[in-house]
Amino acid sequence: MLVIEDGPSAKKHRRSTKVDDDAAAAERRKLIDAERRQLPAWAARDKLLQLLQEHRTLVLVGETGSGKTTQIPQFLLSARFGSRSRSRSSTAPGKPTSDKAGAAGTPGDIKSPQKATGVVERDGASRGAVTQNDGPAQNVHHVSINGSDGGGAANHGGPQQPTGKSVGGSDGSRAGGGAIAVTQPRRVAAMTVARRVAEEMGTKLGDKVGYAIRFEDVTSHSTRIKYMTDGLLLREALVDPLLSRYRIVIIDEAHERTVHTDVLFGLLKGVQARRGEDFRLIIMSATLDAARFVDYFPGAVAALIRGRQFPVRVMYTPKPEDNYLDAAINATLQVHADEGEGDILVFLTGQDEIDSAERLLKDRLATLQGSRGPTSSPSFGSRELLVLPIYAALPPEQQMKVFEPAPEGQRKAILATNIAETSITIPGVRYVIDTGHVKARDYNAKLGLESLAVVPVSQAQARQRSGRAGREGPGKAFRLYTEADFSVLEPTTPPEITRCNLGSVVLQLKAMGINDVLGFDFMDPPPRAAILRSLELLYALGALDAAGCLTEGVGRRLSRLPVDPMFGRVLLAATEMGCGQEAVAVVAMVSTENVFHTPRQKEREWRAARLKFVSREGDHLTLLNVFRGFLELPKESNKARTTWCSENFINIRAMRKAEDIYEQLVRFLGHPSPPGLGLQLATCGEDSTPLRRALTAGLFPHAAKLQPDGSYRVLATGRQVFLHPSSVLLDRKPACLVFNELMHTTRTYARDAVEIEARWLPELAPAVFAAKTIAAAAGPGVGINERLAPATTGVAAGARGRALRGAE
DNA sequence: GGGTTAGGGT
């Protein structure tokens, strides 16, 4: 069971199996109520509501365990913020409704961040030594909310106003007019928090409180509080740019700065400008970066709610470690030998590193046991150390082991990637070992190249890691670097939107009528080159016209498909080429990561298993074979599926996700009326040619030709790349191929490749591959790249010029 | 000749 962020309350939550026992239910409600009142958020209730009446944007810094995610929406609802009735009675922007505004003492100061220098007081219990060692708390402009007692405020979950007609011309869809939307970066969080809040309010999930995530909508017409993923709200904005069905939008975990939240920021700013007093925005963030948000949103005010975090003592190494992996193993053994009860969480960078750390640690333990005898030392060997890996690609049954409590007399040492920073919370952890490194994705817009490299963490990330030791009691964090090293780390990790491919983002903005993408009000604008590159790509795909405007035929349809624009283009082409079914399966599979589980110590086994699926034509067809194999299993038999997957070293989570995407795409492409595209999904059977042609029609910007030295050259750019070692084509190296993506690690690798015919290119992408050039290139022994590169660059430059004219 | 951090989508 994954435990979500934000609070002991949610963590303790167990769903009651029966509610027919009224007495027990009432008892439970009392308990829940008592629990709620303990939460720091509860004490801040009245003040928060007051602030929100006076300001259109509230930036709420709620530390871990404050209860902000579960409580704030309920407060708003009980204060009728979640109903339509008060929206008309509110006053003009900037004019407080309440004459009590001054009485609270501070609102005047709060409004102007520059004046309100109130340093946030931080009590020791809240952050303890972490703060101390990290240096002084940042000087942020907030007001600290110290609970006025929340005694009188008990009408939570009271009867709600009938919704009537919604504001701003609602479309009458579910969770109708004036509801409260609360976004989360992760699906599990949206689900579990919604479930908890429904229970607190004593309603059925999907009734007054619900959630919506991709593939799942548990809301109804009576839903007033809707927890959802940020990506989903972004999708809704495509259809309803004013988000008219919501009176309040809450962006939770805003400090994580996902691509989705960052785009939402810009959109919401526009929504505020157009909806005025009719709309309220709350930005909830766990770290003290409120000033950024306050500066960005006009008229915003910040407030802090304390958390319930136990103190964590942070230790640094006196001098730099030259091998953090060795250091981590030593530190783990030392903590195990010297420290009291509690599990150890070690942050490493990736699967390989975790695998080898696991081996090294187990070897060291065996040696120690052997030299001392099984029970010789009271401090060492008296307790066993249970070494457990956790990372996203690990099969679920192995992942589950970290959530089980250590058996009596044992201690867990969990070797984790940054999955344990935010996505999952592991119970029992009291010691954190931070190697100070992380494997991170980056994007070089000029080269259109993604890279994956081990880099130092940011200070914020280091704090987040340390905090994992203080969830259940006082803890200790061991940073395997010096305090001086910490002080020179970047304060925060740059937002993702500044370091990723923007194809989808630019397409979405265009589809929402935001034509001047370069001028979009991003909180942190992505590199200009990244936007330009996306415009070029979208033009090449036919999604934008020469003026940079969305094309109705291709562009509009691509914007609605929930896949990368290049894959969307593959799907559209496939429906015309009679291989829609196969293409949907392939796109679903490539939209899923970690299909194959490839543990290093079982390489022979997984290679043998994979052979059954291998297509000599490439990775896409191999993935298609896997998907077909999976679909042949009885859908209702979980057992059969689990067994098949584990026998074949296939990740069942990935397969379930691929199946969901497949079904969603089939529904979408096939459905006859508007949101659907009403396209026929035919099958090409065993003939792979139509499918490979369809893939070419979308992936042509990634077409590459074999070079004499065994490497490949990307036709559109002239770049030299290598086939990724995981490709089934590695032994066969066809003369021409298209691939999904480039990734730079030790070298520049092309991942997921499929063989194509060079002569298809001018036919399927005439704007980019002039027939003449290809004809020359197709001749034997002709230096194809030298001829192609200038031609394609010229086209790209032309596209850029035209696309920009529309944009600027 | 050799390898993938984590999230997310009407």
Describe the structure.
This is RNA helicase. It holds the Pfam family HA2_C. It comes from Volvox reticuliferus. The protein is an alpha/beta fold and 808 residues long. The protein is 40% helix and 15% strand. The chain has 31 helices and 22 strands. A 9-stranded mixed β-sheet has the order 2-9-1-8-7-3-6-4-5, sandwiched between helices. The protein has a 6-stranded parallel β-sheet with strand order 10-17-14-11-13-12, with helices on both faces. β12 (384-390), α15 and β13 (410-416) form a beta-alpha-beta unit. α22 (565-577) packs antiparallel against α23. The chain is globular. The model is unreliable at 1-19, 84-173, 374-381 and 774-808 (pLDDT under 50). The protein binds one DNA strand of 10 nucleotides through α10, α16, β15 and α27.
Summarize this structure as a short list of keywords or feature phrases.
single chain, 808 residues, alpha/beta, 9-stranded mixed β-sheet, 31 helices, 22 strands, globular, disordered N terminus, DNA-binding
Count helical runs.
31
* DSSP strand count: 22
| Global structural class | alpha/beta
Q: What percent of the residues sit in helical stretches (DSSP H or I)?
A: 25-40%
Mean pLDDT across every amino acid position:
79
> How would a crystallographer describe the biggest sheet?
9 strands, mixed
